[in-house]
CRISPR-associated protein Cas5 (Pelotomaculum propionicicum), 258 residues
Amino acid sequence: MQVNKVMKILSFRLQGKMAHFRRYYSNSSALSYTVPPRTTVAGMVAGLLGYPRDSYYGIFSLDHCRVALMNGSPVKKQMQKMNLLMIKSPNDLNGSQDFHSQTPTELVIPQDIRKGFLDYRIWFYHKDPGIMDELEHLLKTARPGYCSRGVSLALGTAMHLGWMIFDGATAGKEVVPAGPVPVLSVIPMPKLERIEFGESPVSYRLIREELPLEFDGDRLATERGKADMLISLTGSPVTARVSSAVMLDDGTYITWME
């Protein structure tokens, strides 16, 4: 196993009752990604730190920032019709205007929405120690809830408010595993070599989704700004052979979204 330098990684959870991470190509039907894309996580962190809108794409680019995430609890999707309003002025917010749009909207919800909740676990690393220290200080000192200097925390759209739980800082090493390892996070398909099932049967619920990773200054995906990801819908780790991974100090493995 090849091991590189040790890095400091922040771990936190995004939780809530439902989410909608709109696919960039959706039009009449608002489809959702199953997990928050890397661009969404970067926007959340930028909002928590108080960065102005559209000002942070270079700061949180693939060259400067690393993100990994996993489903911490089983999820499913459900379509709902949303009665949307045409808002051109504050007076239109009372719903008195004639134009209403019935839009099918795909929601991500827990398997048991009455008792459960969404639980996305995020691992975050930035090359700038100042950003890491500022974010860690904010997460440590803020009361449970939004803990934001900018926008309120939402799981995609503003109506799906969520909350954040700080798991703490951990150490990680970028490694090239010599064999199959249990990977907690979503796995980029270019890094996936083989899924190992072993002798005993293993129950997986896996999907493959193309997620946006990085925007340029015009809010367009860069040349390497999209990639296919293997996602576990149950929250269980996937034992797989991967070309590279990050081994955390507790012996678990994650892969960066890149």
Residues 2-80+104-254 form a domain with the Alpha-Beta Plaits fold (CATH 3.30.70.2660). The helical segments are 38-49, 129-141.
